[in-house]
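Q: Given only this backbone (334 positions), what sequence would you predict?
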């Protein structure tokens, strides 16, 4: 049997043999530099949850569902719901910072182990857009609904109309209006878009991402978070990735899809996240000083990775029964 075919076969989990990506390096028969192929029978880590930023309650909620035998899809939805309801988190759900016109508009997407997804974009008056995205995935022939159409669909599905602009978000908007600086200044220590990836006891992977987007964005602006391959991507055979930070830069490099594809080629989740950040910061003339992007990733074996442009990106990780907030490594150490 050709070695290439052998690798393919050997990585099939149905054989109970698992190729560990950090050690399974890219294999090129013509390469002089023949790299070692190491197969492992290590048990995959599951259940597991990883989420962007300091989101202990969201991750704990998801983890409980998984520990009780629930699906990764339910776990990521219920986990994200926690942050959407958290009014103190001003970049997700209720209490999110509004656009320049004072409207809070939410973006979300969800993707399951079958490779199906649903997303909603620029939705007003609905707090739990992650559940709405799931409804799009499960109850419509489409994958994306935007604005008024998405809101109308929400009411048809029994979602309640809510005012998403809290007093403190309104105040922040009024302060912003004094200068009305039309540029996306990103406070690199205060991103709270939640991207979450989970592996359930059966080994199925799902992911979700929900946000109010960039504070004081132009009306109608959509970021990476509801765009599959941008803010989130899951391939149940390989793993998943999610993004936070300046969505425009994530979209230009199709970051989450890129990370999953790099893992497919044999990179570890950490290596894949680092390369995806590299694709942004290494563009000629790119001035990355004033924006942040952070990625998280997990592969089928439950290896995880995280990397950001600047310091202070963190993530919550639940594995082996423990839920920890971990500071990510980062590029800009100058
Ligand atoms: C966006 N990526 O809309 C989102 C914003 C974000 O923490 O992640 N903020 O571009």
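A: Predicted residues:
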């Amino acid at each position: 049997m050709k070695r290439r075919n052998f690798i393919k076969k050997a990585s099939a989990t149905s054989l109970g043999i698992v190729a560990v990506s950090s050690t399974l390096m890219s294999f090129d028969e013509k390469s002089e530099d023949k790299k070692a192929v190491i197969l492992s029978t290590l048990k995959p880590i599951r259940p597991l949850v990883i989420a962007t930023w300091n989101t202990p309650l969201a991750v704990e909620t998801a983890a409980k569902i998984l520990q009780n035998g629930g699906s990764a899809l339910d776990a990521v939805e219920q986990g994200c719901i926690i942050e959407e309801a958290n009014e103190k988190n001003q970049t997700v759900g209720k209490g999110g910072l509004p656009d320049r016109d004072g409207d809070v508009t939410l973006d979300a997407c969800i993707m399951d182990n079958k490779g199906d997804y649903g997303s909603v974009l620029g939705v007003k008056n609905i707090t739990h857009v992650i559940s709405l995205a799931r409804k799009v995935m499960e109850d419509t022939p489409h994958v994306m609904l935007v604005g008024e159409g998405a809101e109308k669909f929400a009411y048809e599905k029994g979602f309640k109309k809510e005012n998403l602009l809290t007093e403190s978000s309104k105040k922040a908007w009024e302060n912003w209006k004094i200068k009305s600086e039309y540029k996306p200044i990103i406070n690199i220590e205060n991103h709270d878009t939640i991207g979450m990836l989970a592996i359930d006891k059966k080994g199925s992977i799902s992911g979700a991402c929900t946000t109010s987007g960039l504070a004081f964005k132009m009306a109608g602006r959509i970021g990476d978070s509801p765009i599959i391959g941008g803010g989130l991507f899951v391939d149940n055979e390989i793993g998943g990735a999610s993004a936070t930070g300046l969505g425009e830069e994530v979209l230009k490099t199709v970051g989450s899809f890129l990370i999953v594809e790099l893992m497919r080629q044999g990179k570890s989740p950490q290596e894949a996240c680092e390369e995806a950040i590299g694709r942004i910061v290494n563009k000629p003339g790119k001035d990355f000083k004033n924006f942040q992007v952070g990625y998280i990733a997990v592969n089928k074996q439950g290896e995880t990775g995280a990397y950001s442009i600047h310091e202070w990106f963190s993530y919550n990780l639940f594995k082996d029964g423990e839920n920890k907030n971990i500071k990510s490594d980062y590029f800009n150490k100058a």
